């Protein structure tokens, strides 16, 4: 069978040459491109300024793959969680997180995850496949529309903190972000986008070399190798020393500082040894720390530390002039919070 191609996998140049090969004026390509991206159209019939003949030609050669909202849930704190169905019916999750000052879209980069962070529900699924650039872009567009509909404002920020490890789907994530930031797409500033990684050092170096303009967050959770290896077993392949070198390189090349995401757990990292290790790590290269509230998953070995331990982290970091914030969990009642995205509906 002759499978039709997803038209959105074509670049504007490829689309233009398709039109030229078929003896159609090339300006048609930018019209069609505009429908596909800026207007997020779902079918060729919506392209009303395009001739019927051309629409039929496109229909005979291509399909338009588009994500669909499979399930919509609204938390009592305003957080919205979508189960998003992809063209092959696989599911990922995308979340809208409103606060007074911002509305953040939290989007997924892979179906499942190949990493094995013990405290994260997503890691209990295998990695099934990478998302395509259009699937990444569509999540941002979908959440943006929901933000306008429910909160009267477009999204102000995007974080790649949904399912998956963005750096293990590097080229599609970069292409998706290019669309999100381009004027043919959402036209959003890359300064408002943060990619979060579990710490794949060699790809952090690649990103720095590629001169990307978005922000970087790293899920550190422990600056002591032995502990980090236990709670994030894959990290044995990415020693802290290499991670720090990569962070220094990132800072040198991009002039941006990284944010370390960090959860404090009872009996795991709630002691002075861990606090001191974090301070030392942070002092080696300009950085800030985001202490994340832990959301319980099925793994009973992990329990959030008490406020006293968290305050000790805050005061020691502040004493050492390392900026620190505490991120309150959102959307817990609908399992939309960090580390809880695991397709419970499946
Ligand atoms: N793989 C990437 C992006 C997805 S996870 C990464 O690890 O950065 C987004 C954030 O949620 C990470 O900081 C992750 O460590 C954190 N997280 C995972 N499980 C969590 C949980 N149960 N409670 C709170 N945060 C969690």
Quick structural gist:
By secondary structure, the chain is an alpha/beta fold. It has helices at residues 12-21, 27-36, 52-61, 133-151, 170-181, 201-209, 225-231, 240-254, 272-283, 307-319; strands at 5-6, 62-63, 68-74, 80-85, 91-98, 103-106, 110-111, 129-130, 157-160, 193-197, 215-219, 258-262, 287-292, 324-327. The structure holds S-adenosyl-L-homocysteine (SAH).
Would you tell me which CATH topology of the largest domain applies? Answer: TIM Barrel
Q: Give the name of the CATH superfamily of the largest domain.
A: Aldolase class I
Provide the domain count. 2
Beta-strand residue percentage: 15-25%
Which segments are poorly predicted (pLDDT under 50) over 5 or more consecutive residues?
none
Q: Outline the biggest β-sheet.
A: 10 strands, mixed
Termini separation (Å)? 30 Å
**How many E strands?**
14
Number of helices: 10
**Strand/helix succession:** EHHHEEEEEEEHEHEHEHHEHEHE
Could you say which overall geometry the principal axes of the C-alpha atoms support?
A: elongated
Oligomer type: single chain
Which molecules other than protein and nucleic acid are bound? S-adenosyl-L-homocysteine
SS class: alpha/beta
The whole-number mean of residue pLDDT values reads 93
What spatial order of strands do you see in the largest sheet? 3-4-5-6-9-10-11-12-13-14
Examine the secondary-structure arrangement and name the CATH architecture of the largest domain.
Alpha-Beta Barrel
CATH class of the largest domain: Alpha Beta
Query: Cα-atom Rg, whole angstroms?
Result: 22 Å
Query: Which percent range fits the helix content?
Result: 25-40%
